[in-house]
Amino acid sequence: MKTVEIEPTFESWQAAARALLRDGVPPADVRWREASSVEQPLLPSEPSSAGGAKVPRQFLDLARRAAAATDPSRWQILYDTLWRLVHEDRELLKNARDPGVRRLHALLTPTAAEPETAGAAAFIPSGAGLAELKAAAARCKGCDLYRHATQTVFGRGSADARIVLVGEQPGDQEDLQGAPFVGPAGEVFDRALAEAGLAREKLYVTNAVKHFKFEQRGKRRIHQTPRASELNACRPWLEAELTLLKPEVLVCLGATAARAIFGDKFRITKDRGRFAPTRWAPKTIATYHPSAVLRGEDDAQKAELYGMLLDDLRKVARA
Ligand code: SF4
């Protein structure tokens, strides 16, 4: 029996599962144990393979969501499923009656430990402009994220912006400085905007979730992906911003923002880079979050991700 110690994050499980798969270790020979001191990248990458074996994109999406559950058996369930996808049946996930698939889906069902939150709607003053919205958002307690973050990070930019960009949530530096896209990802963002010919002062930049969600590990605050319930709780702020701004072009940066706008079925790797009309803007497009560039596995992957981000922003500039 092999004991594998991971952080309770999708990225940590994924790295360990890849190695186990590569070494041919079956699920029955693995005991998963959660630790809290393993250094990991801040955000997940967008892999298309596990241990060199291709797995359906649907599994990776399910695995990310299942990793956010609290059931301690989720790592075993995920590795069981991964193993069977690779060694038994690549179409396994289509079999909704399979006990393993059912266990996987059960992880995604909200439990009493993850209650739906009241949401931000009650904190939004009617008839408010952007400045009033920002002031009101500073007092929001629509979900639990305000409890640990430094401050609300509201959208920033021109009230006349024709182009609005939406990210996922503030990061460590954004939380401390109270402004979106000012940390390391903000530097990538600024570089890509400049190369694409987009002037940041003419844009409006915001996030789908306005408080930083993180896990404290020693002195480090490690980004955590917001749950669907937190995304829903915070959605009224984004909708209020978009209702006022009425952008011609709306850009979703990363999977969380894309799902907030296009819905749960949107897949950033498959659906990015194409304009589509939404209720918020006649031209809505999704691309990679600048932080995805930073977490590329090596320089080549970082360059590739940056190239895709830049290509998509150039389309926005031309639009
Ligand atoms: S994350 Fe959004 S809904 Fe939750 S407290 Fe912050 S502003 Fe309110």
Give a topology summary.
Layout (H helix, E strand, L loop, with lengths): L1 E5 L3 H13 L7 E5 L14 E2 L2 E2 L2 H11 L6 H14 L11 H10 L21 H8 L18 E2 L5 E5 L4 H6 L6 H13 L6 E5 L6 E4 L2 E4 L4 H18 L3 E5 L1 H8 L5 H4 L11 E5 L2 H5 L4 H20 L1
Parallel strand pairs: 1-2, 6-7, 6-10, 10-11
Antiparallel strand pairs: 3-4, 5-7, 8-9
Helix pairs in contact: 2-3, 2-4, 3-4, 7-12
The site of iron/sulfur cluster has 15 residues, from helix 8.
Attribute tags:
globular; 11 strands; 41% helix; two-stranded parallel sheet; 12 helices; five-stranded mixed β-sheet; Uracil-DNA Glycosylase, subunit E; binds iron/sulfur cluster; 2 domains; single chain; alpha/beta; 319 residues
The Rg value, from CA coordinates, equals 20 Å
Strand element count: 11
Alpha-beta content class: alpha/beta
What is the makeup of the main sheet?
A: 5 strands, mixed
Q: Which sequence of strands runs across the widest sheet?
A: 5-7-6-10-11
Quaternary state of this entry equals: single chain
How many domains make up the 3D coordinates?
2
